[in-house]
Amino acid sequence: MLLKVKSSLDVPSSEITPEWAYRSRRDFIRLAAAGAIGAVAGSTLLGREASDAVFAQADLPGVKKSSYVLDTKLDARINSWEEITQYNNYYEFTTSKANVWKRVDAFKPKPWTVKVDGLVNKPADYHLEDLIKPADVEERVYRHRCVEGWSMVMPWDGVPLSNIIKRVDPKSTAKFVEFTTVVRPEEMPGLPTGGLDWPYIEGLRLDEAMHPLTLAVVGLYGKELPTQDGAPFRIHVPWKYGFKSGKSIVRIRFTDTQPANSWAVRTPKEYGFYANVNPNVDHPRWSQKTERRIDGAAKGLEAIRNQTRPTLMFNGYGDQVASLYAGMDLAKYF
Predict the structure, then answer these.
(1) How many domains does the chain fold into?
(2) CATH code: domain of residue 55
(3) Is residue 240 part of a domain?
(4) Which residues pair with 160 in a beta bridge?
(5) What is the mean pLDDT of residues 68-86?
(6) Rg, Å, the chain Cα set
(7) Is residue 45 within 8 Å of 29, Cβ to Cβ?
């Protein structure tokens, strides 16, 4: 059942850029690229190369606006399509955040199959459409916080991950959910230099995965999810750092033991299993007490360095999720 959140998290859907607005911006950009508007198309607009890439996504049918909203006092501005699709962490393509979108053209997100196995009563290789019904997809505005210190506010389209979990019926002995992402060397040019042992693996406790805020994402701004944002299917856990939100998922495994998530295996002193946003626990190489909100509308994406704000405990979702960790030492279980 979807939570109606009112406390520290209320952003009306009116704050989201409506479809007509970003379609109008697309048309304006194309006119500018063709020379019809001339020199007006400066640093606040994209060139033709970018506009073709970011507006190529197909519309998702019948996306519903969620009753879930954020707090306008904290998040007065929802990030634009351009910002969300042109500043990404996706090491399988490149470690350069501003260039992921330029290196994804070879990736093929359709057709897509997800293997469900482990401690589950309905194991199978599922077509994505069998796990996520288009009629159930809704749009939610969520905060996104990366461990490196940057953040965005995103209008994701998807369903509660609990919908999928209930559909496949985990066994009573299942305690964790493990996610494995796709590995396609011929389509992912960053694999040799990405610095991890592939495939990328992440995991959640089952109660975390079942929480109503945890979202199985298939779209953005009412359109199919772009490759650079995790097409065709990713997870978003809004109270955790972004590396917990696996992209392009091809396997969901239910287990009674804690998954060995990729970053914790690679550098266990820097990245724990839980990865809850916690300003009181520093990364060994930098503080987590502040974040840089990406706001490149006028000055380009490098303007993020000037948008510093305090980091909120659990990324601002404490009222909803703190009870999941009652009695735990969050400095130890980081």
Answers:
(1) 1
(2) 3.90.420.10
(3) yes
(4) 215
(5) 81
(6) 19
(7) yes
